[in-house]
Amino acid sequence: MSNTYDVSAENNPLTWRMRDDKQPVWLHEYKSKNGYRAAYKAITQMSPEEIIELVRNSGLRGRGGGGFFTGIKWSMMSQSKSVCSRYLVCNADEMEPGTYKDRFLMERLPHLLLEGILISSYALGASRAYIFLRYEYIIVAKYLTRAIAEIKSIGLIGKNILNSEFNFELFLHTGAGRYICGEETALINALEGRRAVPRAKPPFPSHVGLWGKPTCVNNVETLCNIPGIIEHGTTWYRNISSKKSNDSGTKLMGFSGRVKNPGVWELPFGTTAREILEDYSRGMCPGFSLKAWQPGGVSTDFLTTDHLDTPMDFDKIAISGSRFGTGMAIAIDNTVNMVSLVRNLEEFFSRESCGWCTPCRDGLPWIVKLLISLENKDGRPGDIELLEKLCCVLGPGRTFCAHAPGAIEPLKSALKYFKNEFELGIHEFYKQEPNRIICVQIN
């Protein structure tokens, strides 16, 4: 975080407790900063139904990238009295390249996440919760293990929490490291010890999830918003976002790439990309200029400098032709060849495909081969058209999950804005004698 970044409890519910020396806030200090006060209020003074309705009215949207309304997701959980077990799973896998906001929260405020999990589990009637953590987050695993032990020592894990009938257990599970685990049903399979492949929906996890029981999967940052909503209410939460945005609350946002001050900041929804780039990241490094940017990780469409004044929220970024995603933007500088960049991204997505469905399993490697040819100036007439058709074949509704549709977003947008760079990859021989080539057609 920038040294000049002003943090206040009223406007920054996620970050105001953080220490200036960047060390984690442990239990004693966290409680001295109103920590677990929301949990006490929720469990001793509110019913689960009241909490779910409060979260629903707050307008909180999922912070993992999808942006689905959290209160609606919670209300979909099966409340059948015949179901004795319900689960909450915290998605802390964070495998999206260019994204490190959840790690930032867990390393600095592990107890904020635990308080959010505790309140959410009570509201959902979940007696057991799991944190599914990215295997590379070794320091985070160490901190969370200590934080879990601390709240267990004061009776916030175990039976009859705060003299109520609420029994609660919390477990930390380290994943094996797969991008596909960002899809909630693939994460559930991995947690069960199965192959990390998405499940068919319906049934949805809210009815048939972990071990066949009702399950809710929420992102780290999403859960970290819950204590503030419980403590201060929905009117406060809706009003701390910018008037430029219809979304509620604040969001961890930032820029990485060749910027002077890469980082992450808690900002109100509606803050423009230009403000983040110029005021917080302090602009591009000397000798570099901005060529393109991705709003929320590498699976979002490229935007150009013409889009920098777009307010950063789910709806406004969608209107601009991309996705808000995780809100962690990536700056692409003027020295980057877009064909090489996209080839690198598609190699990643191809490698991370679970291989479950044909369009993704076979289509992504095909895209990589075509991009390698264009990168090496050995492309053929029809290659670019073939890439455009593959973008359709791997688009939404044509694959088992959203992995392939997300993978082709950077390719599709690069072809839209920087097609001339792809055209430079056609070999001179084929330009001179185009009749020698027969183009492959996909219907």
From TrEMBL:
InterPro entries: NADH-UbQ_OxRdtase_51kDa_CS, NADH-UbQ_OxRdtase_suF, Nuo51_FMN-bd, Nuo51_FMN-bd_sf, Nuop51_4Fe4S-bd, Nuop51_4Fe4S-bd_sf. Its cofactor is [4Fe-4S] cluster; FMN. Residues 339-384 form the NADH-ubiquinone oxidoreductase 51kDa subunit iron-sulphur binding domain. Its EC number is 7.1.1.-. One of its GO terms (molecular function) is NADH dehydrogenase (ubiquinone) activity. It comes from the Bacteria. It catalyses: a quinone + NADH + 5 H(+)(in) = a quinol + NAD(+) + 4 H(+)(out). It holds the Pfam family Complex1_51K. Keywords: 4Fe-4S, Flavoprotein, FMN, Iron, Iron-sulfur, Metal-binding, NAD, Quinone, Translocase. NDH-1 shuttles electrons from NADH, via FMN and iron-sulfur (Fe-S) centers, to quinones in the respiratory chain. NCBIfam families: nuoF_fam, PRK11278.1. Belongs to the complex I 51 kDa subunit family. Composed of 13 different subunits. Subunits NuoCD, E, F, and G constitute the peripheral sector of the complex. This is NADH-quinone oxidoreductase subunit F. It comes from Blochmanniella pennsylvanica (strain BPEN).
